[in-house]
Design a protein that fits this description.
This protein is an alpha+beta fold and 210 residues long. 42% of the residues lie in helices and 11% in strands. It folds into 2 domains: 61 residues, no CATH class; 122 residues, no CATH class. The longest helix is centred in the middle third of the chain and has 22 residues. It starts with 9 loop residues before the first strand and ends with a helix.
């Protein structure tokens, strides 16, 4: 362990992912950095703990790169240090039991479980599919904020043809996903289940991204 300094260029409160990433980049720029954490281990919401032989996630159970995470690891020289596995969730309820591998899988399961709501569900999933595709077109591209210099310009230019697809979200600005469901789906049972897949009061854009 290095001896403590009398002063630091930067002090970061919290050793979550944000604090750790910022601290690493600042240190690579030659600054002296102190990261303070109240917990016994770093990681914030992406750490976990064990109780009586069981492992529990501290918060986040999965995440996507969104054009950010893996490029950041690569720049920090950490991309090959950890093995990542594709995570699939299982949605289990009295009427529905589906492993969430794709939006199509979820739609098929809901149509089978709630045939009386078929028309509304098809309209909802059709609209949601368009929004998910629009969001995916953008987040799959390299994020300009991870790059520097000419690399940032190149990444920004590659996004320009994709950004137009986000105009679809203008029609839903300020609208919650729950409101969108209520517009198309009369049956409360599928609405309640679909709402559980995101955060309460998620915006339409956040829900599509999730």
């Amino acid at each position: 362990m290095r001896a403590r300094r009398e002063s630091y260029d930067v002090v970061i409160i919290g050793a979550g992912i944000g604090g750790l990433v910022c601290g690493n980049f600042l240190a690579r720029k030659g600054l002296s950095v102190l990261i303070c954490e109240q917990h016994t281990r770093p990681g914030g919401y992406v750490c976990g703990f064990r109780r009586k032989g069981f492992y529990f996630d501290g918060g986040v159970q999965s995440f996507s790169s969104s054009g950010l995470f893996f490029p950041i690891l690569a720049k920090l020289g950490l991309l090959g240090e950890t093995r990542f596995s594709r995570a699939y969730f299982r949605l289990t309820a009295p009427d529905v039991d589906v492993v969430v591998r794709s939006l199509e899988d979820v739609e098929s399961s809901f149509l089978e479980a709630y045939p009386g709501a078929k028309e509304g569900l098809e309209k909802f999933f059709s609209l949601l599919g368009d929004l998910v595709e629009a969001m995916g077109n953008v987040v799959r591209e390299p994020n300009p904020w991870v790059e520097e210099g000419l690399g940032r310009v190149t990444a920004a230019l590659s996004l320009i043809p994709k950004i137009g697809s986000l105009r679809k979200f203008r029609l839903h600005r300020g609208e919650r996903a729950a409101d969108l469901m209520r517009r198309y789906i009369e049956d409360e049972r599928p609405r309640r289940l679909l709402s559980s897949l995101g955060y309460p009061n998620s915006s339409v854009a956040a829900y599509a991204g999730m």
